[in-house]
Amino acid sequence: MVMAKKNSRETNGSNLRPIAIVKGFVLSQFILLCISVALALAVYFSSWRASPELLNILAHVGVFAGAIWAGVSCHKKAWLHGIVVGLVAFVVLSWMGYGGPAFTSWLWWKGLLQMGLVAMLGGILGGLFGH
Q: Any alpha helices (H) in 46-105, and if so which ranges?
């Protein structure tokens, strides 16, 4: 009888682990902070200027790493954990760096989809390493 309750609880319960999502998001923000400090130092002490394409790639790398960590930290549906980390990170970064209404721009929706796909791949990769 105890086994039946455990199995029904596992199938009926939520497959999302909020702590895994928070861990992935915090790691992605920490990596982005470290990248930002390194780029700020490089720009300050040299004549080099970062291009928008490089900044975009580095933002994706930070979120990808956070999605990997979320995938490693969860037990099921690592791809979904990665997507949630990517979407939350993108919305937070958009809110911090964009002054206008974000949801009305086609480029914003395109970036959201792109970040979600990159984060999904990170979650899948983390799920493969975590199990």
A: 52-73, 78-97
